Amino acid sequence: MANERTLSRPELDDRIASVRDNLRQLTEQAAALSGAADEARLADRIAAQEDELDRLTRQRDALGKK
Predict the structure, then answer these.
(1) Fewer CB atoms inside 10 A, N or C side of the chain?
(2) What is the mean pLDDT of each run of 10 residues along the chain (66 residues)?
(3) Which of these, 56, 62, 66, lies nearest to 17 by C-alpha position?
């Protein structure tokens, strides 16, 4: 993602909101599922979305420091 262009604050806010919504949906799916394979797959997706949320939040916070 180093090739990614710098996003504006509104773009970052939109992406952060989207990732948060994805996390909410994945959490709801995880609560409804049973089965180790499904749970592991969802856990991986949740972890990836949490990583993305952290990255976007850091990027947004860095904009505020400029």
Answers:
(1) C
(2) 74 97 92 80 94 96 83
(3) 56
